[in-house]
From TrEMBL:
This is Xylanolytic transcriptional activator regulatory domain-containing protein. PANTHER family: GLUCOSE TRANSPORT TRANSCRIPTION REGULATOR RGT1-RELATED-RELATED, TRANSCRIPTIONAL ACTIVATOR PROTEIN DAL81. Residues 266-523 form the Xylanolytic transcriptional activator regulatory domain. One of its GO terms (cellular component) is nucleus. GO terms for biological process: DNA-templated transcription; nitrogen catabolite activation of transcription from RNA polymerase II promoter. Residues 1-22, 104-131 are annotated as: Disordered. GO terms for molecular function: DNA binding; zinc ion binding. Keywords: Nucleus. InterPro entries: Carb_Metab_Trans_Reg (IPR050797), XnlR_reg_dom (IPR007219). It holds the Pfam family Fungal_trans.
């Protein structure tokens, strides 16, 4: 879009400084100027204002006290701008007018009429400073906390915007959130707008308490999202050609019809979701009649990933089991389509792109001798970066104006990424990417597992139970808590600096390990209570018990801690300082490590067949 710029310079009366009126006009507005009778010599301030008025529906713009119409070619600044000794900018008045009409909806009369006819209260004796202060206070009036991010009493999803992608503004990015929130730009996020870039500020609830504890969240930090139109990233490379993408759509449809796809997604919710809840039941199961259409509307990457994830459980579906001999589906082909679609969607990512990455990371590895290729760890780093760009590292519990289902989903997705990151280091010996000081997402609560799914016999009734009553009845909750302990073990012993500080210091190692060992024991007691409740609950009894993998994960966590405690015993420096090391402490550490290894072997030998057929996290 071409910009035409005109600088109108005039001499201030009674002053020695020049005042410049700079007007920015795009090509679409220029046509309005021509239709309004503007000559070829260029528009004046009066004609510019007249051209802007029909766009915002403000026929009384001069009454705002922010700009004054003049018929001269080179008008002097208005009273307000002369008082401030600044240039008179018509565009500032334009945005101020837009903010002035942005009111909460009036249920007693037409909303648009009420907004346009809103009077501006002023008196002839008001000074420009008083006028500006009155208008500023009106625009910045605190809300009642029930409005959405646009200032209306409704909620709207940040992610479900078909033509826009949202990115959370960081403090050092190209747009400063502290500056954006102080201008009208922070409230112009509208999918119906023609602006390719807009901003949206999320208001937060003050004095928020997470459960029964203070959150410690920075309530003064501005939460501002940049909304970018998909067309802006349409030329970015590398990307997938449209014909290749269309062929992928066709291939997926040929492999899995819509009817088969719906059944595979239901298998995911029945056998995988209780352990890996990275989708929203409230959205997909909004109604029984719309479930099939909701599945069909999913992105290509997410559909392919869901189909591949549900494929191992086809034998538990009567219809799909009968088709196994007639149509052999390939999980590898589905994952390839998923990856192809991800590389296309990554330029304009949404939560569905992140969900696809998380399901792709859970792909089972059939190689008995190699853990995985470096692709997995690169994809994990990519996923973490995507998570931070979408703003999931910032806690959304106290955000106002977005749907509850989206807040629950965002928090679960963050902790799912956290799990994959923290369990990559013990399985591959790599460092973690997520640092404690880089996120403030609070621990999961019962609300994060709530659902408004209304289909009779939906996954909430079949397998997951009513999480609104007790969130400790969740495999995912216990996995997150165990992953937080594993993260602290890594920070205490397995970073480069931590390893240098502890590998020769037995006393320091024991001091750091003691509280971690205590936390593991507390977690074990809580997990045993969870298993006991499930065994007595016949509604959720299933011969496919994926909780066995979590028991094994606990034993692995204990082994990692013992590996850290064994290091100073074997170092040469510790041997020379053997006088200061209690011999009984060394013996206890070695005996505990040996007992842990024996417990792991015995546990694996006793795993029942049904547990092996259940869903296992690929990181364990």
């Amino acid at each position: 879009m071409q910009d035409l710029r005109y600088n109108n310079t005039s001499k201030e009366s009674g002053g020695s400084n020049d005042s410049t009126n700079q007007i920015f006009i795009d090509s679409s507005t220029w046509s309005n100027f021509s239709a309004s009778g503007v000559g070829t010599d260029g528009p004046t301030v009066a004609s510019t204002t007249a051209a802007i008025e029909p766009e915002v529906g403000m026929a009384q713009m001069p009454e705002l006290g922010l700009c004054r119409r003049h018929s001269q070619r080179n008008p002097r600044s208005c009273d307000f701008c002369r008082a401030r000794k600044t240039a008179c900018r018509v565009e500032d008045a334009f945005y101020a007018a837009m903010d002035a009409v942005r009111l909460p909806p009036d249920t007693s009369s037409n909303q648009e009429d009420a907004a346009v006819q809103r009077p501006f209260q002023s008196s002839p004796s008001d000074s420009p400073e008083e006028l500006f202060a009155a208008d500023w206070q009106e625009k910045r009036r605190p809300s009642d906390g029930r409005g959405d991010i646009h200032g209306f009493s409704q909620t709207r999803s940040i992610d479900l915007r078909s033509s826009q992608t949202s990115f959370l503004l960081g403090d050092t990015g190209e747009s400063d959130p502290y500056l954006v929130r102080s201008s009208s730009l922070a409230s112009t996020g509208n999918e119906d707008s023609d602006a390719p870039i807009s901003y949206i500020q999320i208001r937060t609830q003050k004095n928020w308490r997470h459960g029964s504890a203070d959150t410690g969240l920075d309530e003064e930090r501005p939460i501002v999202f940049m909304l970018i139109d998909h067309s802006l990233h349409g030329r970015y490379e590398p990307r997938v050609d449209e014909d290749v993408l269309q062929n992928a759509h066709t291939s997926l449809q040929e492999m899995c019809s819509d009817a088969i796809g719906v059944r595979l997604v239901k298998l995911y919710f029945r056998y995988v979701y209780p352990y890996w809840p990275v989708l929203s039941r409230s959205m997909l199961f909004s109604s029984e009649s719309s479930f099939a259409s909701n599945v069909a509307s999913l992105s290509l990457s997410l559909k392919a990933a869901l189909y591949a994830t549900g494929l191992p459980f086809m034998v538990f579906d009567e219809v799909l089991a009968a088709q196994l001999d007639l149509q052999k589906l390939s999980a590898n082909n589905l994952y390839r389509i998923c990856w192809l679609a991800i590389t296309h969607e990554i330029h304009n990512p949404h939560l569905s792109t992140l969900q696809s990455c998380l399901l792709l990371l859970q792909r089972a590895n059939d190689d008995r001798y190699v853990m995985d290729s470096p692709f997995r760890w690169s994809l994990l780093a990519w996923t973490i970066s995507l998570t931070q760009s979408l703003g999931l590292s910032t806690d959304c519990s106290n955000w106002l104006g977005i749907p509850s289902w989206e807040k629950r989903l965002r928090r679960r997705l963050w902790w799912a990424v956290f799990i994959m990151d923290k369990w990559s280091f013990p399985s591959a010996g790599l460092t973690t990417h997520i640092k404690r000081e880089d996120y403030d997402t609070q621990p999961l609560t019962a609300e994060d597992f709530a659902s408004t799914a209304i289909i009779e016999g939906s996954p909430r009734d079949l397998t997951t139970g009513d999480f609104t009553a007790q969130h400790e009845d969740s495999h995912f909750y216990h996995l997150v808590e165990l992953s937080r302990i594993v993260s602290d073990i890594h920070d205490a012993f397995f970073t480069i600096r931590a390893a240098n500080a502890t590998r020769h210091d037995f006393s320091r190692t024991i001091e750091l390990a003691r509280p971690l060992r205590s936390r593991l024991q507390i977690w074990k007691e809580s997990f045993n209570m969870f298993i006991s409740r499930r065994q007595h609950d016949t509604r959720r009894h299933s011969r496919l018990d994926g909780n066995v993998s979590l028991s094994l994960a606990y034993l692995v966590s204990v082994m990692i801690l013992f590996r850290a405690m064994l290091r100073p015993l074997e170092s040469s420096a510790a041997a020379r300082g053997n006088i200061q090391v209690e011999e009984r402490g060394k013996v206890a550490i070695r005996a505990g490590a040996k007992a842990c290894c024996l417990e792991v072997v015995q546990f694996v030998e006793q795993i029942p067949r049904g547990a092996w057929d259940a869903f296992w996290h690929s990181c364990k």
